[in-house]
Design brief:
- With 259 residues, this protein is of the alpha+beta class.
- It has helices at 128-131, 144-168, 247-257; strands spanning 31-37, 43-49, 53-58, 71-74, 78-91, 96-109, 114-120, 124-127, 173-175, 178-181, 184-187, 190-193, 197-205, 215-223, 234-240.
- The two termini are 36 Å apart.
- 31% of the residues are buried.
Length: 259
Amino acid sequence: MARWWGRKRTSGDTGAAGPGPDPAAEAADATLPGQADGPDGPRAVLLRVLDDGVLLSGDGLGGARAAVAPRTYPWTEITHVWFANDLEGHPTDEDTVVTQWVYDQRLEFADGTVVASRLSDPPVTTPEAVFRTGQLADRPPSVVWPLMARIHAHVTDVQLARAEATLAAGGRVEFGPLTADADGLHHEDTHIPWEDITVLRYSFVHASVDEDELGAYLRMEFHDRQAGTYGFPFRWLRIPALDVPDVEVLERLAARRRG
């Protein structure tokens, strides 16, 4: 990841994953390339986004392996989504900075197939003096982000309903290193009641004085019940976004319960 200067950029509390146009916008070609690992072994694939799910097919360039019959997966058969975005860039000799938004996504399907995509928008150039103010040059409308956002929106609706039903029945829902139950979240030896969570969101930071903060993370702030009268009243938790499946489901669960 490139290292930048003192500017912080994050997505909002609604779970919007990175910059881009309206997620409802239609792309000219609703297809994302990727690599699938599943019963047929690793292969290059195309993921076409439909109204009722996604169509997975070979990319037509891999010979017999790519000739596996296409399969349509309804939204209910996408069991997990991982997502993170990034900003890559470098300065040039012309006192400009070239930047490029990158998007990582993994989808897991009910049959065990996993499709990973790492895609980027076209690079853009910004005068270095402008970039140092925290501004980035305008860029062409993203083709990648609207398609990923359409997938996330549909899958999150399905997974949220399942998670709510599981919690209502007294069960638990796993989000990588976090476990949700009716009372709150568990992380290692810490139990965090829903009402103690003040902030829980996906965010991406491309510049910070503290370089440890750079990157795509699930960031959570919560009340520290052990702090005492004179202790600092909050604690923070930062987990790499790609370690947390279905982060948008978790965001919405927390928003509904923390009051």
